[in-house]
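Batch manifest, entry 17 of 40.
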Amino acid sequence: MKNYLVTGGAGFIGSNYIHYLLAGKAEVSVINLDNLDYSGNMENLRDLDGNENYTFIKGDICDEKLISHIFREKSIDYVVHFAAMTHVDRSIHNARPFVKTNVEGTLNLLENARIAWEADGVFPNDKKFLHVSTDEVYGDLGEGEYFMETTPLAPRNPYSASKAGAEMMAKAYWETHRLPVNITRCSNNYGPNQFPEKLIPLLIHNCINHKKLPIYGDGLSVRDWLYVRDHCAAVEAVLKRGVLGEVYNIGGHNEKTTLDIAAVIINHIREKYDKTVTTDLIEHIQDRKGHDRRYAIDPAKTNKELNWAPEVTFEEGIRMTIDWYLNHQEWLNDVVSGEYQHYYKQHYHTLTSAAQE
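Output type: structure tokens
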């Protein structure tokens, strides 16, 4: 039985990863640590109630006593660290919570893993700390280029800077202590259960409700998109087969502009659900400060060294995603009408961006 500590497991990627882990795997025990802030949703994990291999702990990764207790009492083998504040617009409005959670929280986890796992200066070969990062730490990218693991980090907003800082801390624990660490940098994820401040569920929700689709600037910013379950498979490949201390890029070679994404969503909803939904809903709004123009991941190292490749094409994945939201409108409306609703109304043009991040 391998004991996983998954941080941020009530969020979008974390909850999908927990489902991926527990699907038919009796030898896996998962401890989900999440503080259930605005984007954490226990509805994402309701079907795991009563599962003897799953434990939920409500708590903050910055809580030193709690993290120490978990490592002492739960015999953790793997840490898969998703927990982070992630929304760029929020970080522009107030960067301090991002530094606290993303940098200080990561440090707290690293230090407690070191204390728990280190014996006479040596770490066992069956432990690992996997820090899940983002392609945004690379900054902006020119046409025809691709981010590689050796590309210098050049974050351009407070969120990505905090994620880069967390990475540097994880790397330092590998270099200084030889704590068994890997870092992953993934492109934009999409799929079920994503909080509707993000581009795809936001546009789906607004289409369903005949609201404007806010698109930053000219809508031609480019992102590489990956179906969330493919990301989960890549994380597990890195955890099990990644070379210690190494960074692995995870991407799908699915570069789309914001307008591309909007068009796909509009067309699918018009064909399957509501013929009155058209491109007239698109509304171009003032561009974000420091908006990166293009991201594109080169996942060749992960493909070659870990024998991982995406299984879901963008065309298949985006159809499944839109259909999931159409079939779970109650979930979507409940999320939007909760704590998020007030902020949604007050900050429509900043928070409900065509936020690729």
